[in-house]
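FAQ
Q: What does a multi-component entry look like?
A: The components come first, one per line:
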Amino acid sequence: MQMKQVLALALSIAAAEATYKGFNYGSTNEDGSYRYKADFVSQFKNAKNLQTTSGFNSARLYTMIQGGTTDSPIEAIEAAIEEEVSLLLGLWTSGGGTTNEIAALKSAISTYGSSFTDLVVGISIGSEDLYRDSVTGQEADDGVGMTPDELVDAIDQVKDAIAGTTLSGASIGHVDTWDAWTNSSNSAVIDAVDWLGFDGYPYFQTTDENTIENAKSLFYQGVDATKGVANGKDVWITETGWPVSGADEGEAVASIANAKKFWDEVGCSIFGNVNTWWYIMQDYGASPSFGIVGETLSTTPLFDLSCSNYTSSSSASVSTATKSAGSSSSVATVTGSPVGRHGNNGTAASGFKSIPAASSTPLIIATATASSSTGSSGSSSGSSSGSSSSGSSSGSSSSSSASASTTAYSGAVGRPAGSIFGAVVAAIALAIAV
Ligand SMILES: *[C@@H]1O[C@H](CO)[C@@H](O)[C@H](O)[C@H]1NC(C)=O
Ligand SMILES: *[C@@H]1O[C@H](CO)[C@@H](O)[C@H](O)[C@H]1NC(C)=O
Ligand SMILES: *[C@@H]1O[C@H](CO)[C@@H](O)[C@H](O)[C@H]1NC(C)=O
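Then the predicted structure of the entire assembly, as tokens:
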């Protein structure tokens, strides 16, 4: 091979192995008006230029449909092409929207071609549909959801729709609260996807000891339990965060200081290691508000995002921080309450939150899981999410229980993170080429 080819190959490996980091983006503005291209451009630019950090250049969307249209592609795509932002696409499938969502997706493929499809990290069919259809979601009155069978049908429709297009190789997934994943009634959805999107909010886990001090432990308990049912598939952190303001939830207190602690302890342990879409950059006047820049768009965050005090050794103790008693093959009893969801849907809403996902680069999470725990004190629970900017959040929770069998996970402990691996290969190739 020519040096140039070696270099090109190495760079393509680096790209393929990249780990994504970004935020969730709803489809409306604070006042409920639809976001258009210029709005998304402002959001994406702001994320890339956040002070004290860098690299937040991926966007998770909830719908393929531009607000105000039946099935035209969301203009976030044009903004992403312009700003070179990668995309975790989402189709809002609850409530009968699948057909129009698919039409918008196909239209985007034919309209924008590879300048669009090259940006696609994956496609989520649905968002928290199983949660909303669960006993807990219905008690919380969080809106219409889908049964696992309906969701699998929608997933199959999307697979058929992209077959033969430039997106045919896209990684297909679904995003839900983590206790929906560990609910064995939903296992057909796990079978149907390539990756599982993990939404988890210790803040909302009111049936647990959900102080900020215990938040990292609860977060990783949820990740471990999800990995335990994932059959080796990737778990991406699609929503997580801690509110900067709002009401207390159980023992959880919303504050800027606590949001920073959650960012430092959870965010800094996953950024760059697993694909992560944080909830959220700007949350307008929602309550609770998860926005790290406050209500007004600004590149000045409410707290230092630098992770400069974070040391990776602190992540090694993740699993021991869980309330566990355990042996290595564990059975976690998950009892809990996923909690209030934003009462938003993709077509109407602007805000949503996301959570971290452990993915193809399970450096930290796999480590945590490998030594993991037996769930124990009966706790733990689902996640939930934030509120929408359109002010329709719901923060209620109720309790339910589910049980999950968590298998011992002997994943890629010690395997270099993909991005590091790719970078090393690229560096070696560069040295050879030079
Ligand atoms: C989205 O929410 C709006 C307002 O709550 C509702 O009228 C609409 O039917 C919902 N659409 C879907 C697809 O759920
Ligand atoms: C488990 O999943 C099924 C199917 O989605 C749902 O009907 C049920 O309510 C869920 N159970 C709990 C405790 O959430
Ligand atoms: C790091 O820790 C020091 C000492 O506790 C603190 O003063 C500083 O603000 C922290 N920096 C960040 C970025 O969190």
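Q: Is there any commentary attached?
A: Sometimes. For this entry: The longest helix spans residues 418-433.
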